[in-house]
Design a protein that fits this description.
The two termini are 42 Å apart. 76% of the residues lie in helices and 0% in strands. It is mainly alpha-helical and 486 residues long. Helix 4 (46-74) packs antiparallel against helix 13 (252-281) and helix 8 (146-165) crosses helix 15 (307-340). The radius of gyration is 22 Å and the shape is globular. The protein has helices spanning 3-8, 16-27, 30-42, 46-74, 78-86, 93-124, 135-143, 146-165, 167-195, 200-208, 218-232, 238-243, 252-281, 290-296, 307-340, 345-365, 367-397, 399-407, 418-441, 446-471.
Length: 486
């Protein structure tokens, strides 16, 4: 087989379960276990969960269907899929934007995975149940030691590269089919144990009690929308890339969207169900943010019977969830760059992982920089990438075309024309509202200015680069997928 043949022969998911676990593995991670509980705690508990579920199924489910269906329809990575829809030229740069956002996201996500790895390792050493253990001092000492934080970052990036070397069937699929069930089992064990503690009922009341007044507060809906985007990864290109590996007869665009949303919501609620009863049982703060997991929760383990084993179960599961998300995030760039260049897959893995390692050094060295990067790329880059993908589907390809030819192809549940309006108007409208709100609320701050730099700079640079590269061989050819049918 020639090199060209080898590069163009795409792998497929070995099983439908492997595909579904890859989707869930990509979406279930830090956003569910760390962010969901504390954001829910700050925004009315049960009322926030209602708002989150409404937005999850109103926006994220149809959006994920669009991404997966586009990936299977074109059978290509992000840039290739964009080129099929918009034709060669500068607009292909919109696909480059998605890849850039993913690499930027992974650059600070990898050091954060390193935190979970460090805690998972120390849970196995029974550090958290040792005499004289101080959670705050422990975390501060870790973050103040650059050799440790860079080492953890390096281990995560190298492990990611090794697994991606093996390919999606031998690598990604092999990991996620174990990682996701392990996470769910660990959370369920903690939830069951937490419910047996005195005071657990107060935690349940805090988490699931509904104060209806919160549903009339705009912050509740904005935070719920942000959580629905962050935790499901709508617009990251992950669903598109995973969907490009589907077999033609798979009924997974629909199943992937609904199943992923259900699994994402279930794990988030399960995380809150597991954490808050324990936090309230010991009189701790429910809105401690990052401290809820890395500082506050570790105070629980020495106080309960079997705490050492429980710490191992929780932090290993947390690491596996975060790591599996990082694998599929990185796969987006690997698949796309491998298709668009003459690099082999292994060479591409080395190049992408090497770039992520270099870009991740500032976040590995400084937690403050990591927080800043999370705000800039999470609050601005992610909505921008979402607009690129949903905009191409809704306004260039045409949702009706995709609905008929891909979404409903071999689907057990028929999707009606209502889906077209949601993709074309509702999802972009909500994205623009969020970005406008942030620009107004954070006007003039360094975060807002940096966000505007991403919002303007990424598309301009990407358009210019692709306009130059796509025009070098003369007049662009006819696009292979006609659009604008509705």
């Amino acid at each position: 087989m020639s090199e060209t043949q080898a590069k163009t022969a795409r792998e497929e998911w070995g099983t439908r379960f492997g595909f579904l676990m890859a989707m869930v593995g990509a979406m279930v991670g830090v956003g569910n276990i760390w962010r969901f509980p504390y954001v829910a705690g700050q925004n009315g508990g049960g009322a926030f969960i209602i708002a989150f579920l409404v937005l999850l199924f109103m926006l994220s489910v149809p959006g994920l269907m669009a991404e997966v269906a586009l990936g299977r329809y074109t059978g290509k990575g992000v840039i290739g899929a964009f080129r099929d829809v918009v034709g060669p030229g500068g607009l292909v740069g919109l696909g480059v934007v998605v890849v850039l956002v993913n690499v930027a996201l992974m650059s600070y996500y990898a050091p954060l995975i390193g935190w979970t790895l460090y805690y998972a390792g120390h849970s196995a050493l029974f550090t958290f149940t040792g005499a004289g253990f101080e959670p705050g001092t422990f975390l501060e000492a870790f973050l103040a030691n650059p050799a440790l934080t860079i080492s953890m970052h390096t281990v995560v990036v190298v492990a990611t590269a090794v697994i991606l070397f093996l390919g999606i069937r031998g690598g990604v699929e092999r990991v996620v089919v174990f990682a996701v069930p392990a996470l769910v089992i660990s959370l369920a064990i903690i939830a069951i144990r937490g419910l047996t503690l005195d005071g657990a009922a107060e935690g349940l009341a805090f988490t699931f009690g509904i104060d209806w007044n919160y549903l009339f507060i705009s912050t509740t809906w904005i935070e719920a929308l942000g959580q629905a985007l962050f935790s499901t990864g709508l617009g990251w290109g992950i669903a598109l890339t995973v969907g490009s590996y589907l077999r033609e007869y798979d009924d997974v665009p629909l199943g992937g969207g609904v199943f992923t949303a259900l699994a994402d919501a279930s794990v988030g609620v399960l995380a809150a169900f597991a954490i808050f009863p324990i936090v309230f049982a010991f009189g701790l703060e429910p809105d401690a943010g990052a401290g809820l997991t890395f500082v506050t929760l570790v105070q629980i383990f020495p106080e309960i019977t079997g705490g050492a084993l429980l710490a191992i179960v929780f932090f290993v599961g947390f690491f596996l969830a975060a790591f599996s998300s990082g694998l599929v995030i990185t796969e987006v760039a690997v698949t796309t760059v491998s298709e668009e260049t003459r690099l082999s897959r292994n060479q591409t893995v080395l190049a992408i992982c090497g770039l992520i390692w270099v870009l991740g050094l500032p976040s590995a060295l400084s937690a403050e920089f990591l927080d800043f990067a999370d705000f800039v790329f999470g609050s601005w880059g992610l909505p921008l990438a979402t607009l690129c993908i949903i905009g191409v589907v809704g306004w260039k390809l045409g949702p009706e075309r995709l609905r008929v030819l891909s979404v409903n192809n071999n689907a057990g549940l028929y999707i009606g024309r209502w889906w077209n309006a949601v993709v074309k108007f509702v999802i972009p409208g909500v994205m623009l509202f969020i970005m406008g709100y942030y620009a107004y609320d954070q006007f003039g701050t360094p975060e807002m200015i940096a966000g505007m730099g991403v919002l303007i700079g990424f598309p301009v640079i990407s358009y210019a680069v692709m306009h130059y590269l796509e025009g070098r061989d003369g007049t662009p050819s006819e696009r292979t997928v006609a659009g604008g049918d509705d």
